[in-house]
Structure formats: C-alpha cells, structure tokens
Design brief:
The structure is a homodimer of 203-residue chains. The longest helix of chain A is centred in the N-terminal third of the chain and has 16 residues. The first copy, chain A, contains seven helices and six strands. Chain A folds into two domains: 48 residues, RecR Domain 1 (Helicase, Ruva Protein, domain 3), CATH 1.10.8.420; 111 residues, 3-Layer(aba) Sandwich (Dna Topoisomerase Vi A Subunit, Chain: A, domain 2).
Chain lengths: 203, 203
C-alpha cells in the first residue's frame, strides 16, 4: 500500500522530502510540486536543479557589506554615486531589497546575517558586527534598520555600544502609524509611540 | 536600485525564477524560499538540487500501468497477491497514491497521464488509452475512477467506447453524499444523484 510515507518511486520520495524541507511547505504541497516538475521536459527539470545548485556554487558575498553579489564587491558598494559614509544596518538580504525598492535611500548597507536571539542560539559573534565596527569612523552615520521586536531592540543596543566609541552618528528608522493607516485600527504601542515622537507639521 | 526584477546576484535571480515557475508559488514566496536555501550549508543545497534532478534522471514508469516506479515494473503490478483482472483507470500518479492510501483496493491500475480536454489541447492520443485497450479482455473489470466534471465524463465515455468491444465489465466510482456529510450542505446535483442511485440499507 502506498501511503504518505511509502512512495512508488525512490526518486520521487527524495524530491518530496527535499521540497517539504522548505519553510511553509508541507508533504502534500511538496508532492503536488514534485508531480508538477515530473510532468515537465527533462531539460526544464535539469535547469531547475542547476538553478538551485547555483545558490551553493555561484552566489558570492560582498566583502564590504556582506550582501549577496555576483563578485567580491556588490553593485551598491561599487557605485561611486552612493553615499559611502551612511551605512544602513539590516538583518538580511531581503531587507536590502525592500529598502532598495523604495528608491529613497542612497547610502550603503551592512547585512548582519541574522539577529541576536538567545532562544535560537544566535549570539553577537554569529553576526557580522565585528566587520561593521571596522567600517565605522567619526564621520559615519549608522542607521539601525532592525525589526522593532525584543531581538531587534537587543541587537540595536548591542551594536550601539560597539560603535558609539568611534564617535559616529547613530540613527534608527522612524516608527509610527503607517502611511494611510487609520487610527482606529492601530495597536496602542504604535499609536503611543507616534504621539511621543510627533513631528512638525509641514503643509 | 534593486527591485522585484533586479536581483543583487544572477544566481539568486535564476533560483527565484525557477522556484516561481512552480504552480501557486509567486515571486515573493520564491524569494523567501531561495533566501532560506541560501542560508543552508552548501552540501544540503547540493542534495536538494540532486533530488530535483533525480525527477528527470531516476524516475521510471511501469511499462504495464504507466505508474512512476523505480524500474520497468511497479511494485503494484509486480505483486502476485493483487487482482490483475481488475484495472482501475485514473488520471494521475497522485490518484493512485490516494486510492492506495485507503487500503480498500486490491486490483491494479492504469494511469492515463491526463484527461481529455479540448481547451488544454489534450486529445485521446496524448493519453495512454491505446495501452489500456491492449490490457483489457472479456474477463477484465475496468473501474473508471476519473473526476466527475465534464472532462472526466467525456474521457470516461471515450474509454468506454474503446474497451466495450472486448466484452469487459466497466464500472465507475459510486457518487453520492460524502461519509458523514450533512444533507443541508450538499449541492443539489450530488444530493439528486445520491437519491437516484440509492442503495439497499444494510444495518
């Protein structure tokens, strides 16, 4: 009898197990995706497989900001038109992509590669904080663009203590109501902070 | 600026494009999954890539029933304890797995590899109907276990016309209310059919 753990083909089983190891993908979805791939021509499956393998073989990290890159220096760090004295510190590659998509930021980045989390066993030495300290001098502005939860605040505070002796300017993202948000639906923490940190009205 | 179509790394872009070609996976989910894979050790990424490649290289199809298999004959067709005179005709590999999971069926299968659908451009010659006709004789029972929509009914009718001359017995799945279903929530087509096809009460 073929059940959820008893596949008709070993190769199919291995593909389902690999796909279901992805976050948010269960065994049933993985089977659906594997059977979809199975219906594709062999060369398309090989291209898919090679693209995944490329994540291990062809992705480089920028030696300055630790962003994923095609070479030793990413396109942002290589761009002379950007402000190299403003460093935006983020948790992950995806945060860089989100901020770049706004088109509002013209400085450079520093990718920590995670966030301090005792529960997940991630300490300061697992992140690229040492590399950040080496980049910072008195003329630098460091923008701490980490999440607003306990881990984010802890990491921000730890980094602040490491870089403050250099005499650099340290800023953080503005927090408050989202653009177009309704007061009625805002949580009280956000609403409270947006009153405390109120800004001059510029009509 | 890095936007949705402007990735910091070519390899990352290729992985995201491959993953987002899967059904039901958008660009944002694909990026999330690719970045998750990127965080894994290289040997785990290689195993994942090899498992996908295995779908092209290591999956065989049973030469009798067209089910995916590790060799030329699947474990079901190779099983002498199963009833080889009862052939259950299904659309896909997944249907075989669903029926096997019930533990209620002891015959063999025939996987069509699709269903007749003029809209999707799938005709009888794209399916394994010719191979089914060759397996059928006067002593065979063929169970048409296709979906209950127009395409399923059309395919069932087409197959019936092809195999009826052999004198085989042709049956189809019972349709009616689901086990434990409430009359109140049943659609009228299902409820109507379950009255027309009512069965002797066996207490």
């Amino acid at each position: 009898m073929i059940s959820a753990d008893n596949y008709p083909s070993t190769a199919l089983k291995e593909a389902v197990e690999a796909i279901s190891s992805l976050p948010g993908v269960g065994k049933r979805s993985a089977l659906r995706l594997a059977l979809h791939l199975l219906k594709q021509p062999a060369d398309k499956i090989h291209r898919f497989s090679a693209a995944i393998g490329g994540l291990a073989d062809s992705v480089h990290y920028c030696k300055t900001c630790m962003m994923v890159s095609d070479g030793d220096t990413c396109s942002i760090c290589a761009d002379a038109k950007r402000d190299h004295d403003t460093i935006c510190v983020v948790e992950s590659v995806r945060d860089v992509m989100s901020i770049e998509a706004t088109g509002q930021y013209h400085g450079v980045y520093h990718v920590l590669g995670g966030i301090i989390s005792p529960i997940a066993g991630i300490g300061p030495s697992d992140l690229t904080i040492k590399e950040l300290v080496e980049r910072v001098s008195a003329g630098t502005e460091v923008i701490l663009a980490l999440s607003g939860d306990v881990e984010g605040e802890t990491t921000s505070f730890y980094i602040y203590r490491q870089i403050a002796p250099s005499g650099c300017k340290v800023t953080t993202l503005a927090r408050g109501l989202g653009f177009g948000d309704d007061l009625e639906y805002a949580d009280s923490m956000t609403l409270g902070r947006s009153i405390t940190n109120r800004q001059i009205f510029k009509p």
